Backbone:
């Protein structure tokens, strides 16, 4: 896997990742932020792109208030709208999840596009099923569609999507080639609020089926809301990062949401560390699979 230096530049990491031996502007660092290092010991020399090119991470320039308080601001935190139906029940939600586990890709997509299982169907423009290679090893899971995604019916098409594409490119991955991207919920929560637990629960059979059909070797959870809902935990994103979790038996790596990273340059460097861990974990999954054959 080749390093895409241009993609690292686009990620804004050109100033944070320097060639070994090159001088670093220490004024760009803070004293209280612990040094962040890619987990390279466990990785073959050619496995992690940044390492392969002789790059080393430079510690982040600071910690934002949200991270200090152990949480990543979600997109919805900035525009929270009250739930349309706080009791959680949508009048049309008599439909049961039964049968979803047997659907193929096209039938599943059709089922999602007609879904009325929760109140989110009332205000959506388009359902956002997922995009990418239906045979990909890598699956990325975000929180919920935003305004642009709701209009276009595709996940991560706004500015956050552009950053996500750069992150993928830095790993020599691309959404229409070797990655599949989906969200925890398939319809836009009004005002980009966080999805409610009952909305996540009603949508979960679709995601479970997507995972079963795709059989990814690795999942990346993008942001706190996606991670907490996938992993069924209230733990902070900082405590979930840096470890391998499981969803439906698939290894899961947690990283920051690209919309958050757009506002936090220091955490882009941490996200790169997460991607390196994802890459290691992927390599390990492949090696274990080969050993079993
Ligand atoms: N944020 C998400 O979590 N998913 C999208 O598809 C777009 C923005």
Residues:
């Amino acid at each position: 896997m080749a390093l895409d230096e241009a993609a690292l530049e686009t990620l804004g990491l050109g100033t944070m990742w320097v060639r070994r031996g090159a001088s670093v502007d220490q004024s760009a660092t803070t004293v209280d932020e612990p040094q962040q290092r890619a987990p390279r010991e466990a990785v073959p020399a050619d496995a992690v792109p940044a390492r392969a090119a002789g790059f080393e991470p430079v510690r982040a320039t600071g910690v934002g208030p949200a991270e200090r308080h152990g949480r990543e601001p979600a997109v919805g935190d900035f525009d929270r709208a009250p739930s349309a139906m706080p009791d959680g029940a949508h009048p049309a939600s008599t439909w049961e999840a039964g049968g979803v586990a047997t659907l193929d890709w096209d039938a599943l997509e059709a089922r999602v596009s007609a879904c009325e299982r929760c109140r989110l169907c009332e205000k959506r423009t388009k359902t956002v099923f997922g995009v990418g290679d239906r045979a990909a090893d890598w699956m990325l899971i975000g929180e919920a569609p935003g305004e642009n995604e709701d209009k276009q019916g595709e996940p991560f098409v706004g500015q956050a999507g552009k950053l996500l594409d750069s992150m993928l490119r830095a790993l020599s991955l691309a959404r229409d080639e070797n990655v599949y991207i989906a969200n925890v919920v398939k319809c836009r929560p009004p005002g980009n609020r966080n999805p409610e637990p009952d909305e996540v629960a009603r949508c979960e059979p679709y995601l479970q089926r997507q995972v079963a059909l795709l059989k990814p070797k690795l999942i990346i959870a993008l942001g706190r809301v996606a991670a907490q809902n996938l992993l069924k935990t209230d733990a902070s994103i900082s405590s979930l990062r840096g470890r391998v979790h499981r969803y439906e038996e698939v290894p899961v790596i947690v990283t920051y949401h690209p919309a958050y990273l757009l506002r936090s340059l220091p955490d882009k460097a941490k996200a790169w560390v997460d991607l390196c861990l994802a890459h290691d974990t992927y390599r390990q999954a492949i090696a274990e699979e080969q050993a079993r054959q």
